[in-house]
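pinning this so it doesn't scroll away 📌
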Amino acid sequence: MNNDSITSCNWPVEPATNETLPGPDYYVKAILFPIILAINTVGNFLILVVLGTDKNKTSVHVYLISVACFDLSVVWLELYTYLPLVLPDQVKDETYLRNFINFYGAQTFWQYTSLQASNWTLIVFGLERLYATIRPLQFRTAMSIRRAIYLELVVVMLAVLSNLKYPISWYYALQHSPDLALRDLAAEAQYLTPGLLRWHNFQNEADIATQIGDWIAIFTINCCLLIVLRRHLKTRKTLFHAPESVPAASRGIHSSGSALRLVIACSALYVFTMALPITCNILRIAKEPPHCSYYITTKTLDLLSGLGTLSLLVNYSVGIFLYCLTWKRFRERIKSWVRLWFTLAAEHEQRSSSEMTVMENVSRSSVINETVNAMPPV
């Protein structure tokens, strides 16, 4: 946050900070982000492999594969802003700085698009599970893989349209800055036209409103799904004690229950992990003009923002654990893939060992033959 905005709000003057020393959020990001990146990469890769190779695909596979792709994009694009944090000397290089500035608009645009598409896919997935549980017969005739793909395309298109401001305003400001390089990422607004500036300010507040709306929607859907799951468990208990007349119905309820528990777990994770980032954004908006309604020190806000960013990234990284906890079929396929990989690795190691043994025997035989040939005749 710049000092002008603080002065215009008549907040207390904060003591000057040493820019050469790392801030309170530095150690949090520097240590935890590589761990989150590794979990995100391995976990979402396994999700894509397991679900992508499943022969019995449903609409659930469409949504979960899409979420895995979006989650990979969200965390890997954060790496672009993480590197200057841990490699500050690299940022001073003119070539790296130029590339960073040129790519920043596209990086921000696709990261926000992926984030929004992942959230909205979770909302669509939750609504589908709710509809599938309440009206199973109508759901079987109405939903299909093709329709799920169409819905996902609509979600991506809406996410793209809602974030067009980022590349347009950034590259317009970049082209109209004096040296064609925005040294300060916060200086973008001063190079915008009045129309783009209004769009810029509206987008900043719209992002907060969208985050709050997504959080409320997912929380509401999750509460409804919990109610449905409670009734679902009662139905299973009734069928379990009933005469042996509905085994197929019991299996159908069990299979739909896995997807229901999965979406409840994903929604609960979102509700808990996104609470802190949303709170930080609200505090930042409240501190800045024209609101000036709540004061919080920059040091505290930076620390909360760092924790909020990591909490947000956790939401898009630990899906693999939820899948294994709530989805028995997914666990079984993970085990089969792991066994297959270990078997192939063992066979490769055994084959390499056999080839090395053969080569050693051949080499030993050639040495013996050369020695025999070199001996003088008796």
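📌 and the second one:
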Amino acid sequence: MKTHGYLLTLLGALASGALPGCAATPPDEDETPPEALVSEAGTSWEPCGSTARRVKDIAPGAPGSEPRELVHGPGMLFFTADDGSTGRELWRSSGEAQKTVQVKDILPGGAGSEPRFLTLWDGVLYFSADDGEHGRELWRSNGTAKGTWRVADVLPGAASSNPEDLVVFKNRLYFSAMQADGLRTLWRSDGTGPGTHLFGDFTLTPIRDSPRLVPMGDELFFVAADADSLDSLLWKTDGKPGGFTFVLSLAEDLFFRALVPVGDHRLFFSFEEDVIGGLVVTDGTPGVSKNLRSFEVHPTELTVVHKRLFFRAATQGEDTSAPPDDPRSGTELWVSDGTPGGTRQVVDLRPGLLGSGLSDLEAMGGRVYFSADDGQTGRELWTSDGTAVGTFLVKDLEPGPGGSSPRELKAIEATLFFSAETSGHGREVWLSDGTSKGTRRLHDIAPGGASAAPRSFVRSGWDVFFVADDGTTGPELWALRFRPHGQCKSNQ
């Protein structure tokens, strides 16, 4: 394995001025909103019972409405769905069938406006949509038809600017948008048409495993292409006009894979050349960074747990930046504290080049949870505190080498929601508090060995919403009551 430390070219230079619950009452009757309880220290939450409910059969029949992009909003859940007649449009729900409705038919007819990149800012939902007249542009909604409108026609006419990478930074919405020449540039909006404008005349480049725009502390980081060499350049802005600073550049043929902040002063990023890659950290100071190490398989699934970064990677033990006893292994769990010496493999769950193939990393309670195959129990749910002794199998859900293949891991108020496939039950919803005893399956949504294939777990109000297929209605919106400890009804 060749070393790539020398390939990271640090060209930092200042470029300022450059252009570019189960409660006893329904949610709407409870005096204390769920968000207030979440913020209270010591408040613990629990799922109410073991039976989820279908919220509404939005598109009757087997195809289902296939809800996507579930986002928690003020007093409601936003999502997109296709009801079979108006196409995919924006919907909202408060957990009851009669309060699960289409917000607005933006593109009348069967095609649908296909809302994407749903992002909440100050109680308002922003997203991209195509109304059939102005192309795909930036929209906003307060959850009502009257309060849903197009913010700006960034690329005038029927052409689409295709807004992506929506992110809130210093009380403004930043996003990337396409120009007429097909290049993607940096835009900013205050939520109004006149207040939406080109912010930086940069050619933004894609990042495979994270958004193009990443806030850290008081600065917004992004990756752009050099106009001459097409090298990948890391920039930052403080949000002021002309307040752009060039941080560093990757050498030719290297590409940013992910940008992940840990706290307000450490930005980790992975880079790749084909499959091979490495991990680097910077505090944003121009020209200052640390090449932590190189890998045979570039780091992916970068996951923050308190002040450390967990990720999956593989090495063949030939990296000159690594210790002499560096393990020769396949894809396994790694951790970094931001120093070369503190960037290490946590444990080799499955010795050999095949590796445990861990995936679906999720942080909860100072630990990371993930799916992995140790070669004996099959792919099951594991957890780690960053040490070998603190890494263990949570529970063998499907005894034998086959494994239950946990997926869709999502931590919600100290409860881990995920899907797993077991004999006689198929792929269903599972919950865990991180212990074997506290890991259990909900009642089957799809009876018998059929699979409900649950996914997209999101808490909104007094429920955890998700998408599942009971085998009759197709993929639809489901929910499980989720309340502060002691407030679940005894009959649920």
